[in-house]
Each structure stands twice: as structure tokens, then as C-alpha cells.
């Protein structure tokens, strides 16, 4: 059982709160013999790091990751995995706990305050404690390890919708994702989103978004029906991200609207003698098993619940209160969810990759 | 690990293929002391049973469930659970395996034929074998047990969309669901769907759909962050249903389009002295934990991939072939997915209900 | 979580009671492409079957196993596994429930009657219900599947002690195990045990025993430290067998009595260029990982608690009672534990074999 | 799946190597609302700490534990658990990695060197890396948390045998355990062991031992048949301790030697109106479920494999070598296994305690 763990052969356990001394992840099951540098992991944390533009929270965290176990340090500064658990730690440095004193006994609408109190009878109110999106730093670190596991697999994500403003998929250019503060693959949407989000931000409001994550180079045959389907495990991990309210694979909810003729991807033998799908409505998964086509998943993030407008709520003593959430927050938490979604997809794939091939058998035969 | 199992304290393992002698489920972790009759389980199987209208497959199966273990038979014909695993078996009776001979070596587009062959190198092609939606009979039987576990919880489902035809939510009436062959909660949509689906059926085509499942009376406090969130586990189980391509909780993808002011559910103390949510955009779950409001989930089912129109594909020997799927099939498999979705929701909730309360401690103290 | 399941990649779930209609096992994770006949499984059940000599219970059960799923039947009567769950069922035929009416409310000393009642508040008293050693038939069937998984691995067991009468290990001859009703590897102990057990049996008494199970041909490298050590998982499964009170690996408790010089197995390169252990005190496992030497485990079985001598106990209403257990029972339940121990060892090894190599990756590459 | 985790509702994941920067445990599933101080955990680590007498390794580690998450710090310096994962870290301070350079490519007999290399193809040879008994510090810290979970349960351990020298059970006095460097409950054995172990130590040799751990105050009803039996889980965890080769419950292997009349514990109603067992051969467990009597388990620890006598072995390149193990080691590693065994028993019981009662349901109702 796994309140704070996920995966089976590639198994990640995260720990830590928003305002504790540190947070981290233990990655268990990483195959031995993989060489990497700290920078290979840090690069993903930097992508998720707060304070990088005016559209995300102004909390300042360096989010420097430490590797405490599971590797043999090499003379060139790199590390080689040994097959033992990799403990990753990120220290919290910029905690302004005083921001939260007022809400220690009040339930912020849309947050987990009420439900944590109901469930546990005690709650670390400082920055949302364990329910803070800060926990996703640990996921991103673990995702960095997951990426090492699968040679030839590329995992990328992009923001495809903010509020009702969607990208034009005809403009999709992966190279553009790094050129704007939104991870937008469509350069033409950038000024639209900038103007829209500036308005949201200045109003002390927030808005939802949709993220798309894609894995290319995934071998056919990953996933284990009936209850360890690849799409099921991807859905589970994406839904576990803070504020996510919907997940779809391939054409997703769009599949409900079309006919069997339109939806089912036809096949032909390719010129290279390999099976070829003529389309990818399935998002790379049939019967819970990867087809070899790109894995495509999308998830919807609700608007940040922390807003400056006064809202009706109650407190722990059962009194009606009106709350305005102070503290530093993201006007659109969906932006920073892009690297988190990538990490979750990487972890899900790494887990099924190892289930299929075993943790160490392959290594031994090389 | 659990290729064919799900749940932790309420744990279900299913087995069986479309054209084997039988299929079934082992339900492990059901608390002792629950009294039920065979009819209490059979009623849900009857709801899912094929051949009940022209809009579903004409395969005829009685789907009679047997209870092989885990209960003490009582003199009045009822049974009482003992806390040991409950083995449920449904025998297959109407198997027309000859329908499938032709496709033994051909990959039907949209089906799991290709991926099973890639993964396993062998495939029970008869009716899709393990990948057949027939496996969901076992889920529905297990769901019948799950419903016994939680006193006061009501779990219901309805079809809310076929193709682009959506119900009018203002007309929602749960009492109507049993009055039409679609599990439609809106009586006005019924003639529209009838006409539309008749066209689809006669054309040998198929179409997708959206199902909504709702659980009322769920106590606040179920669900275990961070990686055993209630919404995560619901999403996982709904996505595991055959042909499901998307899942959402509460307002789901709609949450991406609105602001924090619109989305976060405000609270007030109710006249009964209990906390009251003024809306339920969250679908009854905050921070992965139930709020006490109704749990609301929707899932999108792709159109049945078995259609009479000839489609391009390949065979196991790597030759291009054109396939027209024969056999008996559902023009809209989404209809029969309603009781399956209910069962999955029931199982997810029963599991978290027991995690919270323990398997037997409560019983002992009564 | 797994009240009634064990294993991870080779995962077995058993169900059924002593006096229900049937019992069985679902074997999940068996690799595809393995060909076997019903006889390949039945042979192990026949070995465990009651009523085969005067030294075991006179209950008569054919214990015929049925395979309900997970295989493609072949024209020659054999079956090939498909990678989907294999459902094995054994129907109960010789149930004399009336034997047990008297003890429905009395707690037999040494049995699980009291603890089941305390835990569950209800108990299937007929033949001990789920706590009956009859459940081990399902284990033995599953073990038959497990043996198919590992080519070149031989798993055998023998009885090495009854009461204080131990075999002479110098006489060990595996070929003798099938030549006597005790699975004794030492033909000289047979008349001793016969005379001793005849006395026990006629006195309506019972006695304990020790079983040794050995796996040869196990590749080096199986087992996953720190908490999925091969010896740990073997100990867990052997301890799960009814009436087992102790487990040891290699020289076991004997290791406590000797020095490091005596205990640690030295190594040399063999003439075949392979590493060679000069002894096997470790029982084939170092640091939780197999060495390539034979895996050797022993377990102690307590005397059958069902005896004809009157014993002091209480009943469910809290009254003192004196009980004499009727019904048919084994004077030395350790005898029939031999095939059960073999099955548990086979399952533990199959699980780790697949963890190491993956469920299907190897198959695909052939 | 759980290479480096154990437990289900009380779930512990450990990480770290002998000579890495730190090691630790993440304890997931600890109920909320438990107040403790750092000293409550440190006390158990101090008991296990090396360098406390001439009979254990002279490595000097303070083994100071830090709590990095899962608690709300209180003004008085204590902490209250919040139900979120508790991350415990112990920094390594006295690492003499240079001691191990020579054996980087040689396989020490009796150690995990060979098997780790076979399995992983890479090995942290510094102090045995992950296979070092230093990992047990993390277990002991986790055990400290486990003890908090069960009010009224007392868990104690003692050394009962070194080599062939056994304590006299008639002299058993728990109060004596803290009065000698062996955790011996029999003061008369102390001079015997001192003299014997001094000889072993001076000879650069080592010897095995047997530890007994006892839990009193355990409520009846813990444990979940058939494959999550309490004795099974205790055996699994005790066998997972480094160097353990045998485990027994109650009279253990002794049960094999006696009759049903002698072995089965009779019952009577006590004067307090509660069920009373007249003996405890079962070691507090029947049918895998606790009886309410003390849980009694013993485990055998092999002699430390690190000895000064030259031994035959091979190196990673397949050459014969003769090895004499340098470095600081325990002449009888069984001594320091006492607090480790206690910790494992505490964790197993805490897990089943929570399975029975649920993680949080009870708390909410107080």
C-alpha cells in the first residue's frame, strides 16, 4: 500500500512539507549501471523552479537537489547507479511561515485545509504543508532519474490552454516551448496569454489550464492489462498532481463524439517492414499496452484556489469567516505543472519498462 | 503488484476470457458480518447483461453469478460474509468462437490484437480473449460486494452524451435512468438517441459516449494523499475500463476555463451545525480527500472498434489486409459501461472506506 | 496489500474453505508461451492428496484441478499460457460437515477457532473453514504453475524429522522419497517412523515434524535486498503454511553455534572457469541474493492440534468446556506439508525469477 | 513491490549505504496526533550504536537522528505527527573508506560481495555499501515511531545464546538486560560470555547468536490470514535482518519434537471473566492471528563473516585469492541485533494494528 509512494519496479516515495526543513524522494528500483551528473536532474528542477517570471509564484527557492544514496561517485564528478535506493533531498530555504498564521484555523476554499483537518484532526497549515504543490519538486527530481532508465525515449510537455484560450495545434513547434514563460508550443499564443494572465494577476485572481505531455520512442508492448494498463497508470499519476481535475489519453473526451470509422487507427506495413499506424487517435495505447506510437496525454488543472478576493468559508471552530488568501502564489499554477506532468509520465513509463524487462536481468547479460 | 488486481484493503482480482469456460473475481478484504442474497449481486449483472435492447450486443448470456467462498450460508438462503476471500464465478454459455476464426491472425484496428501479440507473442483471439469487455462482468459482481461495505452510500450512474448529443442537465431525473435502454437521466434525449443510434447501428458503425457516476452519502475524510488520493484511485479504475479515453472529477476539464473565484467552492456553517459547501465544482474531493459532498466523476468511452466497414490493417505475418469485423457487438459500448463505472466507483470507495476504518476493528467493537 | 495473495510478478491469490463448494487459486503474472498438460499440475496435487496411507487423514478427496482461464487449449489436449491470469479450481467432494456441529461454538486448543472469532466475530467452523490445511491444495496447484516458469530448476522436499526421530543425513537418497509414505530420504528411518506413528495414531495423538525443501539449478542473482531478500520471501511463505512454527535457511539455527571460520563458505574458481563454493552453509543465499548453490530451507510443523484426548478450553459464550476433537485428521500433518513446502519454494523462486527478468521482455526477444 | 520497503498501512522505506553521506527511513502511514520527542527515537539508536563495549565494532558513530518531515514542532520541543510521511535521517560521520580499497574487487566469503556483483554488475564496496548492517540504524529509528502507534504494548529483546552457550531461562530477568553489554536477561551467563567472546575477539574470529524478542500487551485479533499472517510477517522482517538464518515463533523448532497434547495451549475463563491461556507454546499467535498472549519470536544470527583468518575466495576477474578482512567489526554481531529485532517486531505489529483499526478513523472519533 502506498499513501506516499507510486510505481512497482520503479518505485518512488516522496516526503516533506512546504515549510519543513526539506523535502525529498526515495527512488527504489532504478537499474544499476546508469551514469549521470547532478545537472541531469537539476535541469528539470530548474524548469519547475518558482520565481522565474511574473506569471508564477514569487517564492524564491534554489531547489538544489542532493543525492544521498544509491550511487557510486566517480572521479569526474558523475555518479553511477548501483541498483540500491536513490535518496534525493531538496532543502527548503525561503519559508515565510508568518504569512500563514492567520489561516491556521480557517479553511481556504478550494484548498485541502478542511479535508486534512477532517481526516487527520491536525494540519500543517504553513504553506499548505504536505498538500502544497511544493511537493511536486520531489516528483520532478524522481522524474529525472526515470528519464535515465529508458534509452531512446523523449518526454516533453507543453501548455496548450489557459482559461478558454487554446493554442493552434497547426503552429505546434517543440522548439518554441523553451522560448516563453508558458512552455507554449505555439509562439502566436504567447502575447495573448501574456495579456490575459497579466489581467488575472493584477486582479489577484487565477485561472485554469491544460497541459499536454508526449513520450516518443516508447517501445511497443509496455503496460499490463487489465488493472495495470499503461493509460490507467498514467491517468493515476497525472490525477495525483495537485489541482488536476481531468485526464485524457489520445483524443480523450473527443473520442466520445466520433464514430468507429473515424476513431480507430488503421495500420499498414511501412516501407521499412515495420507496422505503421496511419493515425494516433489512441494516443499510443491500445488495450492498455503501448503501440509504439507516441504516448499522448493531457490533463486539466483548476485555477489556483489562493486568490485575493474575499471568499466565504468557515473556521475550525465552526464559525463563518470571510477569507482572502495572502502569501505568494501562482496566477496560473498550470504553467509549472508542465515539468511535473513530464515527470509523472516518465515515472509511469520507467515502471512499465522495468516490469517488462526486469530490473537487472538485462544488465547482467550485456 | 497487480496486473489483474486492484484495491488494497478491499482488493479485487479478476480472471477469465471471453470464450473460456468461465470468468470471475476474487474479492479479498470484505469485512465480516455483512448479510446479502445472491440477488443483491445479480441485480447489477442483470443491468450490464448483453442482449437487452437493440442498442447493445445480441450475445445472449445469463451472467448468473455463483458465490464459491467467503460466506456462511444461512437457512433463509442469504449469506453472511466471514472476512475470507469471496470467490465469484460467472460461467460463459453463448460463445460463438467460430465468428472469430478469420481474425486469429489479423489485427483489428482499435482493438488490442496488435498490442497483445507484441507483448505476449500469443493471443486468445476468440472474442478478444482477456481484452474483451466481457471481463467487466467480473467487475460488476465485485462492485455488488463493494456496495455492501458502506452503509448509507448510494452509487448511481447515467449516460450523459452519445456522439455530440448531450443531455440537458436541467432535466436530470435519476428516476428516469431505469426507464430507457440508455440509462439516460433526461427523458427528452431518449428519442434523439434512439434515432441517432438506429442510424449508427444500421450503418454497421459505432459511436462514443460519456458516462457520469455519482456517489452520495460518502463520509468526509476518505482518500490518502499524496499518491493514494481518492480522485486518483477513481481515475485509475475508470481508465481501466475497456475503451475509456478520458476521466474527469467534478467540473473536470471545465475547471481549466474558469477563474479561482468561479471554481473554488465556498463554505458556510449549515443550519444543522454542519459544514456546508455552497457548490460542488470539486466533485466532492479536495486535496485527494472526500469533502462529504457527492463524488462526481465522468468518463469518455471511445466508439466500439468493431464495425462493418472495411478498414486497413496488417496481419501477424506482416501483410497488409482489409478487415471488416463480424460477430455481435455494441453500436455504443458506452451504454453498458454505466453499471461498470458504478462498480468501479463502488470498489474505489469501499477500499478507502476500509483503509480509513480498518477491516475488522470496527466490527469487533459493536 | 495482500491478505490472501502473495508474490509480486508471479502473484498467487487463493480462496476457498474446507467445506465450501470449491477452493482455488488465481495465478497472475505467469509468462506467456509455456506449454503444459493438466497432468503436470495434477501430479503435485496427487502427492498432497489425503487418504493415501494410514498416516494421513482419511478424508477422501480426488482433488482434481480445473484450469478455467489463462490458457489456449491445444489440439493435443495440452495448454499454452497466454500471460493472462490462470484460474485453478478444485471442487470439494467429501465434506462431512456434521462432524463439526459440536464445535461450532467451542474453541479447539491449538486451532484458529478462538482467534478467528475474536477477529471476525463470525467463523466458518466446518472443518476449520478458511484456516483448514485444505487451503494448501490451492497452493500446490499454483506451485505446479510456478515450476513451469523456471527452466532447469528442480525443486524437491523431504521429511527429515518426526518427533525426536531424525533421519541420518548420510543416508540421504532423493530416489527414496517416493518409496515410502513419509517422503523420507533415508530408507532406514522408515520402519522407525512407522512404528512410532502407529503408536501416536492409535493413541489418538499427534506429533510434529521438520521438512526440508531444496531447489537446485537456481541461477545466481535472484532476490532483492533489503526487504525483498530471497530468504526473507521464502521464510514468509513457509511460515504462512498451516502449523509452521519455525523456518531456517542453510545451516539455520546451527549458524548461531559456530565461528566465522566454520560458517562462511569459501570460494575457488572451478575447473570449468565458473565460481565454485567449497561449502553451502549459507543455503544458497548471501545478502538476500542467490549464489547459484542449492537453495536449502527447513521448516518445523507443530503437531496436529486435533487429538482425541480431552482438553480444557472455553466456548464462545465464555464457559469452560472440555473438548475432544472428532473428525478425520492427520496424526502427523508434517507429512503432507512436504509438497506444500515445495510449492511455496517454487512460487517464491518464480516470483524473483520474473522480477529479475521481467514478465514478457524475454519472450519477445526470442 | 518493495525492494526497500516493508509494511502496508505502517510502511517503512529505508535508504543509504555504509559510507555514503547519510542513511534514513521514510515512515509512511503513522497515524496523526502522536506526540513524541527526538529522545524517544534516539534512545533506541543509542542502544544499537556501535563502539559501546569491546564486544562490538569500534566504529564511532553518534547516530543522531533528524526528523525532516511529518510532524508539527511544538513549543516545548516535542513534535506531533500529522499523518504525513516522517522522514528520518542519520548522517554518517566516521567513514574510513580507505579500509576497504583492497577488497573492492575481491569477494569476502560469507558477505554479499559476490551476489551483489552478480546481480547488479556494480557494487559499493565501501563498508559493504547497502548490504552493511549499518542499514539497520534506519530500521531502529523507524521502530521508534512504530512503538508510538500502539498504546500499552511493550516490546523487549534479549540475547539468549552465543555460540553454544545458552542462558538459563529460569534466571530470566528483564531488568538485567540493561546491566550488561550483551542484553543478557540472565546475569549468570554474563561472565561466561565475556570470557568466551574475549577469546573470540582476540583470535580475530567471530561467533553466532540467538536473540529473543517479546511483545506484551498486544491485543488479540491482529494478523490477517492466509498470506498476511502475523507470524509470517514477523518472520519475514526478522529474516530480513543482516546475517539472520533462522526464525521461530513460540516453541518453534521445539514444536516438531512434541505431541499434540503437550503443544496445544489449553484455555480456561479467568477470574476476571476474560479468556485465559494456560500456556503459550504458540508464542501468542494461532492461525496467524494474535491471541492476546505475549508474542514470542527468536532468530539466529550467523557469525560475522569478517574475520582476521585468511580465507579462500575469488576476485571479480575470476582469480583465486586469499582474503583476510580488515576494518572494524563485531565479534558477535548478534549483540547489536537485539534492538534491531525489537524494531522489526514493533514495525510488524504496528502495521497489523493499523490494518485492523484503520489509519485515521479512530482518531477522528475520539
Automatic annotation (TrEMBL), chains A, B, C, D:
It comes from the Bacteria. FMN binds at residues 130-132, 242-243, 287, 302-306, 328. Reduced FMN (FMNH(2)). NADP(+) binds at residues 48, 54. Keywords: Amino-acid biosynthesis, Aromatic amino acid biosynthesis, FAD, Flavoprotein, FMN, Lyase, NADP. GO terms for cellular component: cytosol. Its cofactor is FMNH2. It catalyses: 5-O-(1-carboxyvinyl)-3-phosphoshikimate = chorismate + phosphate. Its EC number is 4.2.3.5. One of its GO terms (biological process) is amino acid biosynthetic process. GO terms for molecular function: chorismate synthase activity; FMN binding. Pathway: Metabolic intermediate biosynthesis; chorismate biosynthesis; chorismate from D-erythrose 4-phosphate and phosphoenolpyruvate: step 7/7. PROSITE patterns: CHORISMATE_SYNTHASE_1 (PS00787), CHORISMATE_SYNTHASE_3 (PS00789). It is an enzyme of class 4 (lyase). Homotetramer. This reaction introduces a second double bond into the aromatic ring system. NCBIfam families: aroC, PRK05382.1. Belongs to the chorismate synthase family. This is Chorismate synthase. It comes from Allorhizobium taibaishanense. The gene is aroC.
